[in-house]
Amino acid sequence: MGKIVHGIDLGTTNSALCKIERGEVKIKKNQEQKDTTISCVAFNRKKSILVGTKAFNMLKQDRVTAQKTQSSTDTNVYIEFKRTMGTDKKYHSSFMNQEFSSEHLSAEVLKTLKSYDKDEDFQSVVITVPAMFDDNQNAATIRAAELAGFKQVELLQEPIAAAMQYGLDSSVKDAKILVFDFGGGTFDAALIDAQEGVLQVKDTEGDNKLGGKNLDLAIVNDLLIPKLKNEYKIDSYLENDKIRSLLVDALKKYADEAKIALSFEESYDILSNMGEFPEDDNGEEIELDFVINSTDLEPVLSPIFQRAIDLTEKLIKRNNVDKSKLTLLLVGGPTFSPILRQMLTDQIAVPNTSVDPMTVVAMGAALYATKFDVKEEIIDEQRDETKLQLEFPSLKSHTVEDNFDFVVKVNKAKTQGNVPNKIFCEVTNSDGSYSSGKIEITSEFGDIIEDVSLSKNKPNNFNVNITNENGSKVECEPNEFTVFQGLEPGSATLPYNYGIEIYDTKKDKLVFEIIPGLEKNNTFPALGEKSGLKTTSDIKPGSENSIKIPVYQGHADSIGTRAINSNFVHVIEIPSSEFSKFCPKGTEVNIQMTVNSSSDVSLNFEIPSFDIDLDFKFGERTQQGVSSEEIDEHLENILSDIEDFENSDKEFDSSKIDKIKEDINRIKSNFEANKIDYDNLIQTKDNLKSSATEFDNLDNASAWPSIEKELKKDFYKLQEEAEESDNSDIKKSIETIETQLKSIIDRKDVKAAEELKDRIGSLIFKLIDNKHGVDLWISFIYDWDKNFDSHPWKDRSQARMLINQGKSEATNNPTKDRMQQIVNSLFNLLPRDNQPKGGNGHLGA
Fold this sequence. Notes:
Layout: E1 6-9, E2 14-21, E3 24-27, E4 37-38, E5 40-43, E6 49-51, H1 53-69, E7 77-79, E8 90-93, E9 98-101, H2 102-114, E10 124-129, H3 135-147, E11 152-157, H4 158-170, E12 175-182, E13 187-195, E14 198-207, H5 212-231, H6 235-239, H7 241-261, E15 267-271, E16 289-293, H8 294-318, E17 326-331, H9 338-347, E18 351-352, H10 360-369, H11 376-382, E19 388-391, E20 398-399, E21 403-410, E22 424-429, E23 439-440, E24 447-453, E25 459-467, E26 473-474, E27 476-477, E28 480-485, E29 488-489, E30 497-504, E31 509-514, E32 526-535, E33 546-554, E34 567-575, E35 588-597, E36 600-607, E37 612-617, H12 628-646, H13 654-673, H14 678-702, H15 704-723, H16 728-747, H17 750-772, H18 774-786, H19 796-810, H20 816-828, E38 843-844
Parallel strand pairs: 1-10, 10-11, 12-17, 14-29, 17-18, 19-27, 20-28
Antiparallel strand pairs: 1-2, 2-3, 2-4, 5-6, 5-7, 8-9, 12-13, 13-14, 15-16, 19-21, 21-24, 22-23, 22-25, 25-26, 25-28, 30-31, 30-33, 32-35, 32-38, 33-34, 35-36, 36-37
Helix pairs in contact: 1-7, 2-3, 4-10, 5-7, 5-8, 8-9, 12-13, 12-14, 13-14, 15-16, 15-17, 16-17, 18-19, 18-20, 19-20
C-alpha cells in the first residue's frame, strides 16, 4: 500500500499491465488470457468504446470500406496513435461525431489495462515511454494517464525497464547492457552500466518514428503494390495521393500478418476475401493471392533494420564500448525477426534471448515502480482506519546490500479507536530466513529495526505482525512489504540536451546553444545556468519589443546548428512592460533552468543591471502539425542551400555532401509515396531535421580552414606587435593565448576560434594604438575621406562636416583624445548590424 506496485507498457501496437504481488512480478492478463493487449481503439454505432482485439478486428473492415468508397472521413478505428503523441493531430469519429487527440485514445487503452486488476482500483502507476520521447510527448503521456483517472504518474524510459527485468532474472552484477528496443512505432538503443547491481543509463540513441509501422509500409510499397501492378491495372489508384493512401491503409493489415508469420515460418500466403477490394481500371475485381517468402522480405526490411543498427553503432562508438563485452537485450515484437537477429549478430553481438521481448518492459516498469511511495492523499482514500496505521519512512524497495535498517512508525492520527498502550512489532521473511523477534515501538517518531538480513538476488517479502502487551494480534496496515536484493535502479537521465535559440553574431543566424548543466544523460533533477547573454535589440518601455527565449531539446550534434532542427519545447517572452526604463542593445542577461522531470521544467530570467528577476513555469506543450506544402517547401529550401554550398568556394568533403543528398532523396521518395498520412508527414519533418543538422555541421566545418588560417595570421601579428611593445601585460598573456590556440586547432572549434580571434584583434589594436597614438586615429579619418561614397552614412552632411573638422585639426597639433572623439562620432553615423531575419528579441552570444 505504501509503494507503487503497477507498471504499464503503453506501446504503439501492444500494451501490457504488470503488478508486484508479494514480491512476484505478475503480468495481468486480459479477457482473452493474453499477456498483451493491442493498442487499438474503436467506436461503434451504439457509441460504445472498444479496445484491443475487438477493435482490431474492426480495423481491417474499416480500412477496406474506406478504400472501396474512396473516403477516409468515415473511419472509427484507430491504431498507432502513439506516434502522434504530443502533436495537434486529431482523429475524427463519424459515429461519435467528435474529434479525439492521441492522448484521449491512449487514455482509453490505459482505462482498459487498469480494469485488468480486479483486486484493486489503483491510482498510482509507472508508465514507460521511449527513451527518445521529448518533453511534449512525455507531457502528453501524463495527460493521457490523468484522463484515464490516474492521480500519480511516474514515467520510465522503456530500455531502463527492460534492463530492470533482465537484472532481476539474471542476478547481473557487473555488465554493460545494450537494450535494442524496436517497437511498433519507435526505436531506442540504450547503453546501461550495471555496477555491483546498480543500473544506470549511460547514453541513449533512437528514432521516435522508426518501428514496425515502417516495416509494414515497406512491405506494402515494395512487395504488395508491385505484385498488384503485375496482375491488375491500378494506375488510377497510384496517381492520386488520397486514393493511394487509402489503398496502402487497406493493405497494411496483410503486411503486418505476413511480417509476423515470416518471423517464425519460411513462407506465408496472403489471401483476401471476395469483394474486399473494388475493381481495377479495366473492371476486373482485385483479389490478393500472393505467396511471400522470407527471402522476399529480406531486401525490403533490411534497410529499415539497418537504420536502427546504424543508430546503435553511433551509440557504441560515441561511448567507446567494446562490443565483445556487451549484453545485447531485445525488446519489441519486430525483434523476433530472424533477419534482424542475424544482422545484429553480424554487426553488433549475439542477442541475449533470456527475456520475453513482448512483456519485459511492463515487468520492468512494475519493478521500478516500487521505488516510489504512493502519495499520501491517495493512501488516505484507501485506508482502513479501523486497523493500526503503520509507516516505514526510511524503507528502500531495492538494495544491493545484504542487510538493512528501517524505521517502523505508528500513525495514531490516521487510526480510529484505541491504540494499545504497548505495541510490539515482529518482521519475518516469508521464506523463513529471518525474524526480527518482537520489538517494542515506543517513540512517536518510530523505532529502528536493525540489521534485517536479506536472501540474495531475489525479492524478499516480509510479513509485519503487531501484538499488544497481552500478546494479542492487532490488525495493521500495511502488513507486508517487499525488498528486492541485488538490484538497484539508478536515477533517470535527461534524454536530450536542453538549450535555447540564440542569435550567433558571428554567423548572423539563429542557432541552438546548450545550457551548461542540462546536457544529455545528466540525472534528474538537473540545474543549468547560462550567463553573459546579450540583448540583441533596444527595449523601450511601452513598446511592442520583447525578449524571446525559445527552449529546445537537441542532440549532441545540434550545437551551433539551426535551432529549428531541434525539438521545440516552450518559448518564454518578456514584454517591454517589465522594463521601467530604456534597456539598450547588448545588456547582459543570465538565465537559470531547472528540470525536475519531463513534466516539471522552470526557468529563471535575470538582468542584474535592471534588478529584473523573473520565474517561469512551463505549461502544457503541444507540437504543431505540418502540411505536405510545408514539407515541399522545406525540401526545396534545403536542396537549394546544398546547391549554393556546392557552388561556393568552401572546402568540404564531397562524400559527406553526397551522403546527405542521398538521405534527402530517400526521405523525399518516402514522403511522395504517401503525402496524405499525418504520421508520415511528421516522420518526414523529423528526418529532414536530422539531415539539415548534418548539413549545418558540414557547413560549419567547411569554415574551419579559412578561420584557422586567419587565426594563425592574427596570432603571428600579435606576436610581432608585442615584440616591439613595452606592454608587459600583453606579452605575458601571449603564452596562454598560444595554449588556447593549439587546443582550438586540435578540436577544430569554429566558435572558440572566432572568440579567440576577437580577443587577439582587440589586443593588436591596443598595441597599435599605444604604438602609433594619434596617427592611428588620423588614419581612420583620411581613409573615410578617401572612400566616403562607399559608406552608408546615416547623415552624409554630418559625416562630411566631422571628416573635414578632423582633417583640419590633424594639421594643427592634434591630441589623441580629440581625434578618437571625432572617430567615435563617425562610427555612430554608420548603421548598426542588421537584426537577423525573424530574430528580433532573441538573446545573443
